[in-house]
Structures
1.
Amino acid sequence: MNAGIEALNVYCGVAQIPVRTLFEGRGLDTDRMGNLMMRNRSVGLPFEDPVTNAVNAAKPVVDRLDAAGRDRIELLITSTESGLDYSKSVASYVHDHLGLPTTCRVIEVKQACYAATAAVQMAVAYVASGVSPGAKALVIATDVALVDERGLYAEPATGAGAAAVLVSDDPRVLTVDLGAFGNHSYETLDSARPTPTFDIADSDRSLFAYLDCLSNCFENYRGRVEDVDFATTFDYLAMHTPFAGMVKAAHRKLMREFAGTPPAETEEDFTRRVLPSLAYPSVVGNLCSGSVYLALCSLIDHAPLDGGARVGLYSYGSGCSSEFFSGLVDRGSADELAEMRVGDHLAGRCELTFEEYAALLPANLKCLVPEQDKRIDVEPYEGLLARARIDRDLLVNTGTKDYHRTYEWLSYE
C-alpha cells in the first residue's frame, strides 16, 4: 500500500533580514558568514505566534481539499518547541481556525527539531495500516525564534515559521519507503528552552550530536534495508538544516565514512545531490522540526525531477532523537508543490533594517509568555506588511482574554 505526503507547504512569515545586515549590526566577525552558507533569515512579527504560523502554513493545503477530503482528516498533530501551555495543545487552536472536523484526533508532540518526523511516521503508519481506509493526517511543525544578541552566531541562523504536511494513501509529493528507516537516540543537553522567554545552547555538543546521530541512523537504516549504498541508492538528500553549512559538513562525513570518495568527488556529489535542498533553508534559517520539510520543498522545487528519484531524509532533534528515512519523488511531485508557490512566498517577504529588527525583539521574546489580558495591535506594523507581497489571507494573534488567545484574519485576496 502506498502512503506518504499528499501535500506540503511552508509559511515563513512576512519579514526577513539579510544575514550580513545582522552580522554587521551585532558586530560579529563577517569572515564566519561563509561557514553558515546563509543569506537571509525569517523574522516573526509581534502578531505572529506558533498558532498563526501553523494555520498560515496549513490553510492553503486544507483549502485545496473538497468537503469530503477535509472530512477525512482524522488526525491533527502539531510538533513544536514553542508550546503555549503545559496542558492545552497548540493543535486545539489550529484545529479550530482550520475548521477541521470534530471527529479529528488532536494532539501535540515535542522532541526539539525531530518531533515532526516522528509525527509524520506515526501518520504514515496509521494510513498504511488500513484501519480507516482513505483517512488523512495533517502534521504541522511550527515554531518561533527566541534569540537576541545573547545567541551570538546562532542568532543569524535561527528562523521562524511552519511546515504543513498532509499524509494520505495518495502520496503526490513523496511516497515514503515503508519500513525503510533508521533511528538513534540518547539523552544529552545540547540545546533546550527551559522558559518561554529564551533558549540555551551548547553549540559544540549539538554539532557533534547531530553528526554522531547521522552516522548511527544511517547505519541502522542499512541494517534494515538490503543493498544500500550511500553514494548510489539516493538520487538526492534532504536534511535537517540548522544552517546550510552544517548540512555540507554532514554530507562530507557520510561520504568519507560510507563511500570513501576523495574531496573533489565529494564536492561534486554535494552540488548535485544536496545543494538543491538548501536554496530555501539558506534564506529562512533553522525552521526547527519543519526544517527537513523546508529542505524537501527546496529540493523538489530546484532539482531536475524528469523521472522518479529516491530521496534520503535525515531529521535530528536536540536532546536527542534522530531518524534517517527515504521516499520517492517525481515530476508530479514538482507539479503538485508548485501549486503552493513557496518560492514566491519567500521572495515576497519584506526586508528589515537592523534598527527595525532590533525594535521587534522585545515583543517577540514575550510571544509565548502567558498573560491574562493583552491586546496586540497590527496597525503599528502596517508599514511592514505593505512592503511585503501577500496574496493570501493571514491569521494574526490579537492578544489574550482571560488567558485565552484571540485571533483574527487579515484579508489580502
2.
Amino acid sequence: MTFEILQPHTGPIPADVYLPASPETVTWGRLPSRADAPVLTVPAGTTVTIDTVSHEGILEDQGKDPLGYFTGHGVVAASVLDDAVAIAAALSRDPAADGPHVVTGPVRIEGARRGDLLKITVVALQPRVPYGVISNRHGKGALPGELPRGEGTMSVFTPVEDRDGCLVGTLPLTDGGPRVVEFPLAPFLGTMGVAPDSDERPHSVPPSNFGGNIDIKLLTEGSVLYLPVQVDGALAYVGDPHFAQGDGEVALTALEASLRATLRFDVVPRAEALAAFGDVLGPLVETADYLVPTGLDRDLNEAMRACVRAALALIQARWGMSEHLAYAYLSAATDFDISQVVDIVTGVHARIRVADFAAVPAVPATPATPAAAGPQENAPEQDHT
C-alpha cells in the first residue's frame, strides 16, 4: 500500500470549502476566544475540510524543527508536512504558560446564537502522514514522578504500517527491536470546541463546558458532537489530532499525528435542543449506537458524579423516565468510561445505548434549515490540486 502524504492543498479534499492549517489560521497553545476574528465564515449546514497539525514534532523539547526531528527518525523530507514546518518557524508559545496544541480556526457559523447547540458531524478523517508520536513530559501522566524513569521525558516515534489491508500503529518490545506489537488506528480529533464568552484565550489543555481538549475517542467518523454555543457565531475550532487512544490516555498523549478532517456544522436552535436533550451544559456525543453525556472536573470522582447527573438529566428529558428508574437503568446497563486523566481537568463519559429505548418515542435534534449559501467571508482560496 502506498501512503499519500496530504500536504496543504494536495490530495483528496472532500468538501467544497477547505481550511488549510497555516500560521494565519491556527493558534498554538491557546484556544480561540470571543475576541478572535474568524478565519472562515460559513452558513449553517456547510461541510468543511480542515487540515490539522499535531504538536508532536514541533515542540521545543523536540527542537522546534519538525523536518530535523522526523528525518532523524528515518522519515524522508518530502513526507514531513509543510504546514508543520511553517507553523514551527513562524509561531511561538510560552511553554511555561501555554498548552502544546495547534488548533485550526475559529470558524464562524452563521445563525448560531448563544444557547443553541452547535452540531458537528464527523464526516471523514484522513491520516496525513504514516507516522506519529506517543509522549510523556512535564511530570504529567497517570504516574507522575514514577514513569518515565531516568530523564523524565519520553517521545516514542511510532510508524504506521499496512497489515492485511488495515492501518496499524507499531511498537517494538524493546528499543531498537522489531516492531512486533501492533494496534488498530481509530482516528479522532482530541480538541473540538467553541469560543467561550470571554476575551481571554483559554489554555489548550483543560477541557470545559465549551469543549476543547475533551479527548473522547468515540468521536470517530460518523459520530456527532453537540456543544452549547457560548457566543453568537459559535467560533468553532478543532485540533489535537489522534490516530489512536486508549481511554484514560495514561502516559499523557495518545498516538498523536496530523489528520485531514471533513466536518459538517449545523445549528440546533435552543427550543429544539431542549426538547431533544434537555438543557445540555457541556459536550454531548452521539454515535450510531450511543448517546454519550460527559462530566468534567479536576477531581475524577467529581467528574464521575457530574457525568451521572448529566446522564440522568438526558434520559429524563429525552425519554421521560423517572429519575429513580433512570438511576437504576444507568447502574444496570450503562458503562461510564474515563475519557482521560491527564489534562488537568479529568473527563468521564457515559455510553447510553439508544437501542434500549427503541420502544419509547424520542424527540430528534433537528438542525435549523440552512440559509442559502452565499459567498464565504474570509474563505481561503480553494485549491484542490
3.
Amino acid sequence: MSAPATAQSAPAPASSHDGPRPPMRTLGLYLLLGFSAGLPFYMFNAVLTLRLARHGIDIVIIGFFAWIALLPTFKFVWAPLLDRYSVPGFSRFWGRRRGWIMLSQLGIFLSMVAMAFTSSDQSLPLTALFAILLAFWTTTLEVAADGWRIELAPTQAQQGPIVAANLWGYRSAMVAAGSGAVLVAAWADWTWAYLVIAAAAFLPFPILAAMRPEEDGARGRAGALIGGTLFALLILTGTGIATAVIGWGVLSAVQGAGFSAETNVTPIVLAVALLPFVALAIALPRIRRLPADAPAKMPGFIAPYVEIFWRYGYAVLPVLAFVSFYRMGDVLTLTLSHPLWNAAGYSLEQISMADGLVALTCSMAGVAVGGLCAARLPMTVALIIGACASAIGNWVFVWLWYAEPSAFVLYVAAGVDQFGHGLEGAVFVVYLSMLVSPRYPGTQYAFLSGFAFLLPRLIGGAAGAIQKQIGYDGFFILSGALSFAAIFFLPFVMRARARTA
C-alpha cells in the first residue's frame, strides 16, 4: 500500500479523481458483500418493527427497539480488533478480512434462526437479545468489508463505482428481506419469514469458502473450514452469553430507575446525544498540541482516533455535527415508516410490493445517481443534492398519511423514499471515505460512520414517544427538516483542511 496521503473534508483535489477504475471482479465482490450485510439489517430493524406492530406492541416500545440499531454506531470500539487479530482457522487459509466475514455470516445465520423461533414476541427481552446479536454480527461484517474497500479503492473516482456496487447489493438485499419476509409472513407466519431470510443470508458463505486462498499455493482448505467453524461456534456461544448477562444488567438497572413506556425519554436522549461533543471539545486542545508523530507512537487501539482529531483539530466538531444530521431522515424514516403503513391500513401484501419491486427499482436508481454525483461533481454540490433528496423522501410520507389509502399512493411514497435515501447514502459513503487516513482506513471509517448514526438512532429510539406527541405527520415533517438542516453546516465543513503529518 502506498504511503499515507492527507485526507481533506473540502472538495477533493484533482488528484482524487485519478486512478484506474476498480476491476469487475472487485465490483462483483462488493455487490455480494453488500447483499450479505443488507439482508439481516432489515430483519432487526424495519421488519422487526412491523412484526411488533402486528402483534399489538405499544408504539413507544417499538421505538425503544430502534435503539438496537445504535450498536453499529459503536462499532469503532471493536473495529481495531478486526485489524489486529485473525479468526482461527478461517483466516489461516482465506486471510484476515475474509475470515472475519465468514465468522460474521455464521453469527448472522444463527441469530436469525433464533429470532425465527421466538417470533411470537411473548418474551420481548428474548426478542431483543437475539436482535442485538444479529445487529452485532451484521456490523462486524460491515467493519471488515469497509476496511478492505478503502484499501482497494483509495481515490474518490475509484470509490464511486465500488460504493455504488456495494450499495446496490446492500439495498437490493434490504428490499429482498423486507418484501420477501413480509410476503412469507402473509402466506405463513413470522417464523418461516425469518428462516427463509436466514437461509438466503447464508448463501455467500459457501461462495467465500470456495474462493482461492489469500496466498497462492496454500493448502488445507478442508481443515481450515472445519477448524474455523469449531472456533466460530465457541466465539458465537461466548458472545451470546456475554450479551445476555450485560442485557440483563442493563434491563434491571433501567427498571430499577423507574423507566417505562410512559416515561418521556426525549429530553434524556437529547442530553445523551450532546455528551460526545462535550467530551471532544474538552479533549481537542490537548490533542491539537501533540507533535506530528505522537499518534504513530500511541497504542494501536487509540492511535486512529487521536490521529483524525489531530489532523482536523477544531474543524472536527462541525464535521461530526454535519455527519450526525446528514443521515437523520434515512434513519427516522426506517424507524416508523412501516408502523405508519400498518396504522394507515395497508395490508402485508401491499407492504410487500412497496418493499419489493418498487423499492428495489427506485433504490438502485438513487444509488446510481448518487454514485455518479460523488464521482463527477464537487463534493459540496453532491452533498447538497443528497440532503435535499433525503428531506423529500421523508416529507412524502406526510402526503401518504393524509391521502386516501391506495396502492398508487403507497408505491409512489415508497419509491420517492427509496430513491432519495439511496442517492444520499451513496454520496455520504464516498464523503466519509475521503476523510480517513490510509494508515487507519477500517478503524477511522468505523468511527466516522458509527458517529454519523449516533444522534439519529438515539432520536430514533424516542420516535414512538415523539409520534405520540406530534402525530405521524408532525414526525415526518420534523425528520425531513432535520435532514435538510445538514446543508447549513456545509460552509463550515468545506473550509476544513487537514494538517499533514
4.
Amino acid sequence: MKKLISRRQFLAAAGVVAAAGALSACGSSSSTAGSAAASAGDTIKVGVLAPLTGEVSNYGLAVSNGVQLYLEQVNEAGGINGKQIEVILMDEQGDATQAVNCFTQMVDEGITGLIGDVTTAPTLAVVAESQDYNMPMVTASATAEAVTYDAETDTVYSNVFRTTFTDPYQGIKMADYAYEKLGYRKAAVIFQKGADYNEGLAENFEIEFEANGGEIVASESYSKGDVDFKTQLTTILGKNPEVVFCPNYYEDVGQILAQAESVGLDVPFLGGDGWDGVAGYATADQLKDSYFCANYAVGAAPEFESAYEEKYGEAYPNGFAPLGYDAAVTLCYGIQAAEEAGLEPATDEYKQAVIDAIKNGTIEGVTGSFTFDEHNNPIKTAAILTFENGEAVLKEQY
C-alpha cells in the first residue's frame, strides 16, 4: 500500500528552524542565502543545482526560488525530525561540464539528496555521475525521457525522479488534444533541430497524430540561434494545415508567431510547456485560438502563489517555480521516511531509504497529486491553457 501524506500534514509533522544555503557558482564567487545553519549534527544537507546565470537563468531562478520557498517553510515549521535542511545552492551556468563539477563538489560537502538539474543536457550529465553515489535526485523540469530511463539498454535510473512531464508525454498529449478535442485532421510541425526537448515533442506529436488518423502535411526545422523562420513558415503555408504544432521555447515562439502572421499563415498554433511566458512575446491576435500544455495554471494553488509573492516580492514568473516547489516536496517526502527509520544522513542506507519512499509514495504537490510510473515519471493530468486577451488562462485539465 502506498504511503500518502499531504504537504500540510508534512509541515505539521516535521521537526527545526529556517533554511540555510550557500550559493556557489562552481569555481566562481559564492554568497550565502538564508539564515545561519545549526550545528552540523542537526542538519540534513540538500544540494540545489540550477543555472542561476546565463541564457536559461530565467528557468533556473524560478526552480531555485520554488525549491527554497518550500524548504524554508519546512524548517520554519520545525524541520524534519528535529533537523534543519541545509541548502547547498550552486550555479552551473547552463553548462553540462560545470553541472558535473558542481555535483561532485556537493557530494564532497556531504549532501544526502539533490534537487536539479533544470534543463535536459546538464541533467543528463549529472544523472550519469549520480549513479556511482546512488544519490536521490529530483529534477523539476528536465523533460527528456533519457533522464530517468535508457531505452537502448532498458535501464531505469532508480535514483532519479522528476516532477515535470516527459517530452513524449507532452507530444502525445497535444496530438490527442488536437485530434480528439479540437477536431483537427491536418497538422504541420516547426521545431528547433538538435535539441532533445524540441525534437522529442515534435517526433511524438507526429507519431501520435498520424496514429489517431490525422495527416502531418509538413515538418520543418530550424537551428539554434535562427531568427528568420519565414522560409519554413511559407513552406507550411503552401501545405494548407489546419493547425501548427510549435514545440519550442517562448522566445522563439513569439518570433515564429509574428512571422507566421506576416506570411499569411493564419491558423492556430499549439505548444508544450516551453510556451510558458509567451504572453509577453506575442500579441493577442497572434495567440488567438492557440493552446499549450503545462504542469500548472494560475490560481491552481493560491497559498503557493501568495507565499511566493510574499517571499520574493513578485508573482511567480512561470511554471518552473511550482515544479521546483514540488521537487522539494518530493525529496523531503523521502527524507522524512529515512529519518523515521533512524538512519544517518548521507549514508548509503539513508539514500536508499529516500529513493524507496519516493518510488512508492504519493506526493501532494501544488501541481497536483501524483505517483511515479515504472520509469520514475509522475502520473498526473496536464493543464491545457489557451489565451484570452493575450493572457494564458486554464482551459481544462486533460
